[in-house]
Amino acid sequence: MADTVETGMIGVDARPARRQQWEKWLIRGIVAAVLLRLAMLMGLSAFFEDLGSVGDWLVEGLPWLCLAVGAAALLPNLSSGIRLQGNRLANHVVGWGIGTALLLIMYFFGPQIQPALSFMGRSARVLVEFTGNQGLFLAAMTALVALSLAVIGSEGQLLHRPGLFERVWAKNLTAKIAAVPMMLVALGVFTGGTIWTVVYSFTDSRLLPREKWVGLAQYERLWGEDRWLISIENLLIYGVCSLVFSIVIGFMLAAMLDQKVRFENTFRTIFLYPFALSFIVTGLVWQWVLNPDFGIQGVIRSLGWESFTFDPLYNQDIVIYGILIAGLWQGTGLIMCLMLAGLRGIDEEIWKAARIDGIPMWKTYLFIVIPMMRPVFITTLVLIASGIVRVYDLVVAQTSGGPGIASEVPAKYVYDKMFLGQNLAQGFSASTMMLLSVLIVLIPWAYLEFGGKERTRRASDV
Amino acid sequence: MSNVGTLNMAGASADAVSDALSGPRGPRPRPRFSRRNIFLYGTLIVVALYYLLPLYVMIVTSLKGMPEIRLGNIFSPPVEITFQPWVKAWAEACTGLNCEGLSRGFWNSVQILIPSVVLSIAIASVNGYALANWRFKGADIFFTILIFGAFIPYQVMLYPLVIILREMGLYGTLWGLVLVHSVFGMPILTLLFRNYFTSLPEELFKAARVDGAGFWGIYLKIMLPMSLPIFVVAIIIQVTGIWNDFLFGVVYTKPDTYPMTVQLNNIVNSVQGVKEYNVNMAATLLTGLVPLFVYFVSGKLFVRGIAAGAVKG
User: Fold this and answer.
1) Which of A250, A359, A435, B164 could bond to A336 as cystine, CB 3.0-4.6 Å?
2) How many domains in chain B?
């Protein structure tokens, strides 16, 4: 990252630009090969099936081609000779070499090894994969890495800043191995899973995913379905109301607690405890409190006001507000806590200055304090927004989507279609729409929040 | 607090500034029952009552017998206290054909909770440590993806995970759910640990490096002993989060291995039979007891946990 700074410090810049260049291509080749191979495994190969034997060849050949590009970048440097004696990276070369050897053994003696693996049960299936083409491919990759490290290590110049390839493949290797679970989750589940779902939303998968492409047909069906439209409408009402109310109420509670009240901790504990409870518990309690026969309506009627009606859970028109009451009860405490933390971060001097200038308190809040708390508000907004889209358990527990389909939400639609309705592709397309709505909020926020910081971090980065 | 503020001792407020400069010292005496105070405390108490109401209704209902519930209103305290609903909710309540009550769900949840908490915190703390102290090329990319993953709706990743678990032979088992919780707990916990380890003085790390400690040596001998509080915060986040989870429980387990929340929902929202509201409320309260216990015991650490997770997210 900060190449020039560091080499400048050492005072020698012996590394020719050409060197950086071939290392870059080597890395690009290897990374592209591995990613392609993974993508093929996860279903990218389906795109090539229509091409017949050419397609089969491409599925197998494209990753190898990338690997070949990497190898080609390395070739011209082999001429400078490999020194194994006194090789700076000897440990790493041996390590990658052993890896290659193991993979090759798996490949060549696969049929003999397979029975021995059977004691591991189904999880052995992962290992059996390595006895086939996957094993050969990985062996070629590790061999390429070992060879490249051997070439680079031969130079034996300890003083220089390690080159790009060495930094990627050899430096801090333990840390990288320790971070493998994170990489797998980030790439395999979060990125791979998301892309997989989006891609398969263009198929006509029903009980099981299958690669029969139908274009945007699933989306057309989705937006033609009443249940989905009601879900979206509910989500919008619930979203806007809970955004506005939880921020307003949360801020007002925080402002009140900030007045140096006595028993502040007790109040805060009371306001926050619902947050510790699950949405299921929240939904069930409010289902009981809002029960028309025994709950609030029943109690007030029994007091003499016979015509009093408050039965949100049994009225199609207002059922979503019944869910909103429960949602606000559960979540406002969190918003209050965040706002309180924000208010405590405001300098005491600001308050004094405003007081001396004779500005009334509500004006100070509105025109000085709230604008100063903008980051807190934005973070809260993103938090609530990403939570709203996920609303699922609350509805399941409180109304199960009823009465009729009046309180359906998108998350419930997705679950019902995927796991109950055996209509996978509908679920995929609905969840893709959910993803899209979150991204609309998330990307501008991420840009504002991290876009600016990235540059300053780069500068101080070592 | 400014100097003037500390001079004035406790209770000082902004309007004490002028007093401190000239005139008598000490906080200005305020009438205890000023209009402002009545309004302030009145509102706070009313809101607090609103927040406490459902908890009160839950407790009261669960201690009444069914005849009393049908006659009285839900806010009145029980005339005759009975613990029968609690016993029934724990041991006899039915979901479909199975009448074992919540107890099985409880033990399932415990079996899920313990390995999930241990595994997710172990992975995330090592990740956070690697990200904070052993920054390597490309680490930022993975971390950014991870943080994005925290906001993406889970629904997008549900089915791919079903496939992954099925391939591993873990679909429908407790261990499959443990793995899922570790995966989805990773973003927030990694962020938590990364921020904490970054805040530790770097000299410590460098000194250990000079003394020849490696990756694991520094982690086990220096970082771990220093980060007890953040581990407690992580445990609080995970225990409440995993115990309260419903979506993953219902997607990745089978009726035999349903966690407590799923079983609770099945018991209360089952359509067959007469609704026994007192048993339902006892069951609900039983499910809420674990996170409530964690909440009331942990106090400030709970707040710190959600603040650390949320504000910097």
Assistant:
1) A250
2) 2
